[in-house]
Amino acid sequence: MNDNATFSECCSYVAALVQEHAVPKDTHTPSAITISRQAGARGRSIGKKLKEKLRADSPKDAVPWTFFDENLVEEVLKDHDLPTNLEKFMPDDAVNEYSSIVNEILGRHPSLWTLFEDTTQTMLRLCRVGHCILVGRGGNKVAESLSNVTRVRFVGTHARCMQQMVTVHGMSIDEAKRFIKKEDRARQRYMKSHFNCNVDDPHQYDLVINTDNYTDEAVAEMIIAAVEARKMK
Fold first, then answer.
1. Cα dihedral sign for 226, 229, 231, 233?
2. Is residue 1 predicted with pLDDT exceeding 90?
3. Domain assignments of the chain as residue spans, ordered by start
4. How many of the other CB atoms lie within 10 Å of CB of 180?
5. Which of 75, 186, 202, 229 is most buried, most CB within 10 Å of its CB?
6. Contact 146/127 with Cβ under 8 angstroms?
7. Of 167, 207, 197, whose CA–CA distance to 37 is shortest?
8. pLDDT at residue 95 above 50?
9. Per mean pLDDT, which range of 12-26, 155-169, 181-195, 219-233 is the poorest?
10. 132-135 β-sheet, strand order
């Protein structure tokens, strides 16, 4: 599925919420899932497989399970009436703080903190409604007080993560090495800067899965089992 199709699904998700007036008052809040991942641990492909299986298990849901990854940025901008050219300022890592302050003074874009707050508000809104899978941007910390959210982290050995970047994304060994190092450090900085926590701390999650020896489908099944168990708590 391409990114345009994924974004269309997100728009359909929002439309379904409006039609259903969000969560009916006489039912519990539907489940939601956040995914944290090491680079190369297959967060995107597993997230999509998880969405497919959850939709197949509940085909009559008025609000279908929806996967928010890069498209979350577009949802944030739309949610807060921000211009789409701000996308480049909203990676998992923080842009240079000095550059952010200068640009804010010049009126070029909102402050780094404003963008972070907008992202957090949108993620909270989605989690409170349920039936969403949010990847990255500290979703586990944003939703840590919500009982309907299962917080998952994917990890893998360096060798398997490297192999994923080479075989699936067509990178050279050196490119994969640089990419993984850069991405993982960026995510560590993001979590430390915004939430003062260690992204690798297992206590920050409900479930930590080493994806090395499991297929996307097998990992999705584990998460679904965890979601169902949480409902019984």
1. negative
2. no
3. 3-231
4. 20
5. 75
6. yes
7. 207
8. no
9. 12-26
10. 66-68, 132-135, 32-37, 149-155, 207-210
Can you give the pTM of this predicted structure?
A: 0.75
Rounded distance between C-alpha atoms, residue 112 and residue 60, angstroms = 40
pLDDT of residue 70: 62
Assigned token pair, 62: 């008025």
**Beta-strand pair 149-155/66-68:** unpaired
Burial of 125 (0-12, 13-18, 19+ CB in 10 A): middle
Q: Rounded to a whole number, what is the largest CA-CA distance in the chain?
A: 55
Please list the residues that pair with 154 across neighbouring strands: 37, 209
Is the torsion defined by CA of 182, 177, 211, 2 positive or negative?
Answer: positive
CA atoms within 13 A on the CB side of 15: 6
Q: Among 193, 177, 175, which Cα is nearest to 137's?
A: 193
Q: What is the pLDDT of residues 155-171, one digit of tens each?
A: 999 999 999 999 999 99
